[in-house]
Give the backbone structure.
Amino acid sequence: MNQVVIWVIVGLIFLLGVVGFLIFVSYKDHSSSSSSASSSSASSKKKASPPSPGQITYSSPGDHVWTCPDGLTSVDVKVVGGGGGGGSGWSTGECGGGGSAATYVHLKSMPVIPGTSYVASVGKGGSAGENGQSSGFYVKDKTTFVPPTSRSYLDSDGFTVFNFNAITLDYGFFNRGVDNPTTFSVCAWFKSTSSSGILEFSSIIPPSGSYDRILCLSKNGKVKAGVNGGTSTSVVSTADANYLDGKWHFAVFTANGSSIYLYVDGALKDSTSGVGGNYSGHWILGVTNPWNFLDVSNDYYTGLLKGVAISNDVCLTAHQVSELYGASDFVKFQSVLNGISSDWFQMDNPKVLAPGGSGGGNAGTESPGSRAVPSLPGIPSAASVEGSAGNGNSTGGSSLYENYGAGANGSCSSSPPSKAADGVVIISWN
Ligand SMILES: *[C@@H]1O[C@H](CO)[C@@H](O)[C@H](O)[C@H]1NC(C)=O
Ligand SMILES: *[C@@H]1O[C@H](CO)[C@@H](O)[C@H](O)[C@H]1NC(C)=O
Ligand SMILES: *[C@@H]1O[C@H](CO)[C@@H](O)[C@H](O)[C@H]1NC(C)=O
Ligand SMILES: *[C@@H]1O[C@H](CO)[C@@H](O)[C@H](O)[C@H]1NC(C)=O
């Protein structure tokens, strides 16, 4: 090779390097604008690159609004409730009981949605004998699930589990009404041994009037779902399994305005053409109206439900269903949901909640104030540490995180005890 050719090659390599560098720099400079959004995954969604690491601390009591920046899909959240107030003393030297410390919740990776507003609610520490307020972090203006009155909650892999016992008129519902959802998706993890209704779309609360878009467990252990836009149409799991086996199963009932689909445990079981009736109503959980066509023993659900998520404008694909089914805990499940839509109706709203401490008892003339009990578990309970109880005669529970949420000491004289420490919400990302 002669020298000129070699120098041309060296020049070209150098030029390519400079161009590459310039592209890299311009990419970094515009990392937050959507025009240069890049996507390395196969997903067709545009992904903005994440913002540089940051942290926000909210420590004054009250509600603060935080809006998730572009490109950020997960944050580290630390939340401490307000401490419990100490009890008042008595001039004879009897001390009031110490208030308990607040709960501390540390969720290391909470899925968040860019552009969505969240509330960081900071709980106030209690004054004499008062409970501290809870602190929390959750989506602002989220459609609220109104739970059944006899609810009991358990916790499973970060999911909140709701227990239903076929009690007449005991159902839960979403407070936001919906006008004729034709494209929709209903996801539910269920665990049951009883043929009963899981949910429906009803024009009236309590369920009556018009109803369809029903998901239920029919008599022979099959999962069934149906619509009625003039004619009754249903999709049903095949006879390959009895789903009333007391184990967790994942049902997805989804529709695209012309067809309905039923998936169980990630696999498509049935599809047919069909569309729901045209009316406005509410999604109701834990009950279905009697509909012989679906062959259900009890209208009211018996069993456990978790991870119920409903979209009124998405028809899930087989791939999305299998991703949801494969998500092993609530955080992963939530990440998949967030990647599909920012507007799910969820029984289990993604939230962090740290209850405040309890107040200590006031002293009597001859008796010290009673000790405050430890604070309650937080949500998710797997990430929470309950605050310690206050001492029976004066000392408050000590804080579990820095100086936030400590219970106040009871007073040992007639002067009022000092106020307990306020809570905190700290959001950080890197
Ligand atoms: C709905 O599903 C049917 C059957 O698979 C399909 O023919 C139709 O194109 C789908 N409609 C929409 C709007 O995607
Ligand atoms: C549903 O009914 C309303 C009121 O009767 C009507 O305005 C609307 O066009 C109907 N929608 C569909 C999709 O048929
Ligand atoms: C207060 O509680 C501590 C620890 O339980 C105990 O040692 C102390 O004697 C108590 N004091 C009074 C005045 O009851
Ligand atoms: C409560 O009393 C203990 C023991 O006397 C003390 O160490 C602590 O600082 C006091 N806490 C507050 C909040 O005053």
User: Anything to note?
Assistant: The domain at 149-326 is CATH 2.60.120.200 (Jelly Rolls).
